[in-house]
Each structure stands twice: as C-alpha cells, then as structure tokens.
Write a structure and sequence with these properties.
mainly alpha, single chain, 4 helices
Amino acid sequence: AYRDGQQGIAASPSRALHYFLLAAGQKSGAAEYALSLLYASGAANGKPDMSTAMDWLAKAAEHVDQAALVE
C-alpha cells in the first residue's frame, strides 16, 4: 500500500522501503524483488541504483518460492 498509495494510504516510498527491508530480512523473495524495483526506479534513494537493484534481484532469485511460480 505504501509503494503505490492504496486503500486510502498515501504513497510513501520511504515507508515502503522500510517494510520491504523488514520482509527481506526474513528472506522474502517477493520483498527482495520489490526492493530491486524500488532501487532500479530511483524511488528508494532519489536516483536509480542499478548495482543495488541487481543485488536485490539476485537475492530474490535465491529465495523465490519456486512452487508459486508454477501455479
């Protein structure tokens, strides 16, 4: 909701970043992927950071639920 501004909540990239980092700490592939998008778009720190985006994308690839991809 914070990333896109949903359900009556104003968009807040800094809050989205905070919560995605918490989820990534639990090895959530979905959160790691979302972090890669935030860094690639520049929403995470004001300018695109492809190096950090690729690091998060690599982590997401390690932790994604492969069974969920097939369904």
